């Protein structure tokens, strides 16, 4: 029997497997597809934008360089990073409903605790690269991945759960459904999935197009929807406000795609050959719970929405990193009371906000005079420094702050990339997935306390290379600040936070 069975070796399932493997859990991943990789997962259709929050998660586990190598990525919203001691340099900030942001307008004063980091950027990658890097890491950590196993039934006992595939049963103490938007686990375990029905059908395709020059590069809002001409010649996205009427059980034909593209773009382009195409909608749904007994959900299995603004993968990776250490502590028996429940408490509101972010974009893109009027207002607002900064925060994931109660403004947020004067960076201390206590005080006030959680919390002391006015911080394994102390940090405050997130001390 394994500690955890994960259903689905997509990016979210694999990311969760790595987090659990890092914490020493025995993990089995069951994946329906016999082979990793497929044409839809590589460029151009498999291209995905990772937000700064996701890039940070890779960086903190030592996986950013492998990811960049696998992606062939030389890009990022903020471009190549300047030398470590200069402030980060934003360059490009993405879009809202096709309205482009001017990255040079982002007000960096809104990020007073941001420290220079190679991870303060976005990365344009593809699903194949993400999955390859994570599968390699999972294998290194002893995770078993069985491919060609489609789960068709889930049964729960008092303390165990089993995934069934044909005559085979795979038993574990916990099961996590990371099996995507049409999740079988979600249905089998009886999760309620609620939300809004689609307004449009979307298509992405790579095609040979006669009259390509008629299509304007970039995002183009039109009276009937939107089309996007991507930098790779012949890669096109279309959003057709048909109420989601297209029957997605079959692949879109060349004739259908041509008719839709002509209608939405108002051109007479001809698709002489469609090399690959897929469809999606803006159906926006979320489960009302993320856990039923020993079964949990993460990623698209728990929330789906349109790909506008590229948030699905980022939200799913955020789920995995949030859940991993909490489930591992539960498996290993040192989780404080209620720790696992904080997964849904923290992540469901994020998922709900992402669904609304995608609905808001759909609302301003909708054909018709009312949406067009709102579009003009939003365009003006986005054109302001505050508007640009607001949208940038949403796209980059910088807005995410879990409600961990009152405290320093950093509490509940992703930790800045603290650096000690000996050159040690926070990320160096996080690779093995433990919590980190950073003590900047001259009298090492937290040393004795922190050592009581040795094995769960790594203690490091030194002078902070940049003074953010902090005497110490406690960072959770997912990189979130759990506690921050002032100039003369109070060991009692630290101990309360350590007990809350890491359980009773070993000594
Ligand atoms: C056109 C488009 C563009 C997008 N762009 C972005 C972007 O730029 N940024 C972003 O953040 N997101 C983007 N997304 C969303 C993103 O692709 C998804 O949110 C993400 O892939 C979900 O990952 P997942 O691991 O949860 O699910 P999936 O990637 O769907 O993986 C689920 C896995 O489970 C397996 N599986 C399913 N059923 C079973 C079963 N019964 N038994 C065993 N295995 C099973 C599947 O084979 C699959 O491998 C985009 C989506 C689309 C459609």
Summed up, what is this model?
The protein is of the alpha+beta class.
Strand content: 15-25%
- The CATH architecture of the largest domain comes to 3-Layer(bba) Sandwich
Estimated radius of gyration: 23 Å
Overall 3D form: globular
**Helix fraction bin:** 25-40%
* Domain unit count: 3
What's the pLDDT, averaged over the residues? 92
CATH class division of the largest domain? Alpha Beta
Low-confidence stretches: 76-81
The biggest beta sheet, please? Answer: 8 strands, mixed
CATH topology term of the largest domain: FAD/NAD(P)-binding domain
Beta strand count: 24
Within CATH, the superfamily of the largest domain carries the name FAD/NAD(P)-binding domain
Number of helices: 13
How far is it from the N-terminal to the C-terminal residue, by CA?
Answer: 31 Å
Helix/strand structural class: alpha+beta
| Bound ligands, each once | flavin-adenine dinucleotide
Could you explain how this protein is built, in words?
By secondary structure, the chain is α+β, with helices and mostly antiparallel strands. It folds into three domains: 2-75 and 122-193 and 285-365, FAD/NAD(P)-binding domain (3-Layer(bba) Sandwich), CATH 3.50.50.60; 201-281, Alpha-Beta Plaits; 426-502, Glutaredoxin (3-Layer(aba) Sandwich). Helices cover 30% and strands 24% of the residues. The protein has 13 helices and 24 strands. The chain has helices at 11-22, 52-60, 64-71, 127-140, 184-188, 254-265, 312-332, 341-365, 369-382, 385-396, 426-430, 447-451, 491-502, and strands at 2-7, 27-31, 47-50, 92-96, 99-102, 123-126, 144-147, 153-156, 161-165, 168-177, 193-196, 201-210, 218-222, 225-229, 235-240, 270-281, 284-287, 291-292, 295-297, 303-304, 435-439, 457-461, 472-475, 481-485. The strands form six sheets. Strands 1, 2, 7, 8, 9, 10, 18 and 19 form an eight-stranded mixed sheet that branches. Strand 21 (435-439), helix 12 (447-451) and strand 22 form a beta-alpha-beta unit. Helix 1 runs parallel beside helix 7 (312-332). The longest helix has 25 residues, at 341-365. It is globular. The two termini are 31 Å apart. Flavin-adenine dinucleotide binds at residues 7-13, 30-33, 48-49, 150-151, 178-180, 184, 204, 280, 299-300, 307, 310-314, 316.
């Amino acid at each position: 029997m394994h500690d955890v069975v994960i259903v689905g070796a997509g990016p979210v399932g694999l990311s969760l497997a790595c987090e659990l493997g890092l914490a020493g859990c025995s993990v089995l991943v069951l994946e329906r597809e016999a082979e990793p990789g497929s044409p839809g997962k590589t460029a151009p259709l498999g291209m995905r934008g990772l937000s700064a929050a996701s890039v940070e998660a890779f960086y903190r586990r030592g996986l950013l360089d492998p990811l960049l190598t696998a992606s062939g990525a030389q890009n990022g919203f903020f471009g190549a990073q300047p030398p470590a001691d200069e402030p980060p340099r934003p360059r490009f900030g993405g879009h809202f409903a096709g309205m482009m942001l001017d990255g040079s307008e982002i007000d960096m004063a809104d990020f007073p605790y941001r420290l220079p980091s190679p991870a303060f950027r976005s990365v344009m990658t593809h699903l194949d690269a993400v999955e390859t890097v994570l599968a390699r890491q999972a294998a290194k950590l002893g995770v078993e991945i069985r491919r060609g196993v489609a789960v068709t039934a889930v049964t729960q006992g008092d303390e165990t759960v089993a995934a069934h595939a044909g005559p085979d049963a795979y038993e574990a103490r916990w099961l996590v459904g990371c099996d995507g938007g049409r999740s079988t686990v979600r249905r089998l375990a009886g999760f309620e999935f609620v939300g809004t029905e689609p307004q449009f059908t979307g298509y992405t395709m790579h095609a040979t197009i006669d009259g390509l020059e008629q299509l304007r590069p970039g995002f183009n809002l039109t009276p009937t929807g939107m089309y996007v001409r991507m930098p790779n010649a012949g890669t096109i996205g279309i959003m057709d406000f048909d109420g989601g009427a297209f029957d997605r059980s079959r692949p879109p034909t060349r004739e259908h795609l041509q008719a839709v593209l002509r209608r939405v773009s108002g051109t007479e382009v001809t698709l002489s050959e469609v090399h690959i195409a897929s469809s999606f909608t803006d159906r926006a749904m979320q489960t009302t719970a993320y856990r039923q007994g020993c079964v949990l959900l993460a990623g698209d299995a728990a929330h789906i929405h349109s790909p506008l603004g590229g948030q699905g993968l980022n939200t799913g990776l955020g789920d995995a990193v949030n859940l991993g250490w909490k489930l591992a502590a539960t498996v290993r028996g040192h989780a404080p009371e209620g720790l696992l429940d904080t997964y849904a408490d923290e992540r469901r509101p994020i998922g709900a906000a992402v669904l609304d972010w995608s609905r808001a974009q759909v609302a301003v893109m909708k054909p018709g005079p009312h949406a067009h009027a709102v579009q003009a207002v939003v365009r003006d607002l986005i054109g302001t420094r505050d508007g640009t900064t607001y949208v940038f925060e949403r796209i980059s994931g910088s807005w995410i702050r879990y409600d961990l109660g009152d405290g320093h403004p950093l509490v509940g947020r992703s930790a800045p990339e603290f650096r000690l004067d000996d050159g040690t960076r926070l990320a160096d201390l996080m690779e093995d997935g433990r919590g980190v206590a950073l003590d900047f005080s001259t009298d090492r006030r937290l040393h004795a306390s922190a050592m009581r959680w040795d094995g769960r919390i790594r203690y490091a002391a030194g002078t902070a290379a940049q003074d953010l006015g902090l005497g110490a911080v406690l960072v959770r394994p997912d990189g979130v600040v759990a506690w921050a102390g002032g100039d003369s940090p109070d060991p009692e405050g630290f101990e309360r936070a350590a007990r809350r997130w890491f359980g009773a001390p070993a000594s």
